[in-house]
Amino acid sequence: MQAIGIVKSVCRFPVKSMGGERIDEAFASYAGLVGDRAFALFGEERSTNRSGLTARQLPGLLSYAVRYAAGVLPAGEAHPEITAQMVEIVAPDGQVIAPDDALLERLRVEFDCDAHIRRSERGMVDAFPLSMISMQTIDVLSEECGLSLDPLRFRANFYVAWDKVNAAFFEDELVGRELMIGEEVVLRISKRDSRCKIISLDPTTTEENRDVLKTVAQGHEGCAGVYAVVLREGVVRSGDAVCLMP
Questions:
Q1: Residue 238 near residue 9 (C-beta atoms within 8 A)
Q2: Of 2, 18, 59, 200, most Cβ neighbours within 10 A?
Q3: Rounded to the nearest 10 degrees, how much is the dihedral formed by the CA atoms of 67, 73, 79, 82?
Q4: How far is Cα 190 from Cα 180, in angstroms, rounded to an integer?
Q5: Side-chain-side CA neighbours of residue 147 (13 Å)
């Protein structure tokens, strides 16, 4: 195997389209990172076959930071029972609430929408179980946009740093290849990650800058980062080596 980089950070998003958390380690299962997108908001159907409420419709959702309570989701446990009581949502005013009726009432008042919450044992991702983007790719996009882009704008699970020089978008070259991360996890890079409006939204301020999506669309075929599937489960840690398998 050839070492090609390291994992700089691991992220998960307990509630789809809300803020996420950087974590030291997480269990990568066949269904994705344990606890990632375990909850999602749904409301009145807004387009064909799409009733989910996301930051595409409600950018303010990103201003709600979400985390699991300390110690409730140990990385070594492959298939834990996840309940709403394990999740802490920090509203913009600092109030800590759970994904329950209190959250729904707050969202109804703030966004004038009726919603309900779904929980799933499988992460409610848009496409493939895991996503990855390199820090070099984000750096180049920052230069092209004339902005300092927060990596969380791209809502990936793994942020990696490649060893090679001029490695921006190197992950695109890995589509169809298998990677080993750390000592356990094996992934197959499935396809490039087609981007939508959400990358135009600052994850802290929710301010929209359309130049971000425009830059990705015009210069990179609308893609930034890649999707992956898990071939062998295990724990992924920040600092793990990323190796290209033969």
A1: yes
A2: 18
A3: -50
A4: 14
A5: 19
The pLDDT confidence band at residue 207, using thresholds 50, 70 and 90, is very high
Residue-wise pLDDT tens digits, 74-118: 888 888 899 999 999 999 999 999 888 888 999 999 988 888 899
Q: What's the start-to-end Cα distance of the chain, in Å?
A: 6
Element containing residue 170 per DSSP (H, E):
none
Q: Model confidence over 118-152: pLDDT tens digits?
A: 998 888 988 899 999 999 999 999 999 999 999 99
DSSP 18-41: S--EEESEEEEETTEETTTT-EEE
d(CA 201, CA 184): 35
Token look-up 């959400």 returns 198
Which tokens belong to 200? 């135009």
Torsion angle in degrees (nearest 10) through CA of 154, 57, 192, 218: -90
Query: How remote is the C-alpha of 32 from its chain's centroid?
Result: 11
- For residue 201, which of 140, 150, 142 has the smallest C-alpha distance? 150
54-93 burial, b if ≥16 CB within 10 A, otherwise e? bbbbbbebbbbbbbbeeeebebeeeeeebeeebbbbbeee
Please give the domain boundaries of the chain with CATH numbers for all domains.
Answer: 2-244 (2.40.33.20)
Cβ atoms of residues 180 and 186 within 8 Å: yes
Question: Do residues 226 and 189 make contact, with C-beta atoms less than 8 angstroms apart?
Answer: yes
Residue 205, phi then psi, degrees to nearest 5: -95, -15
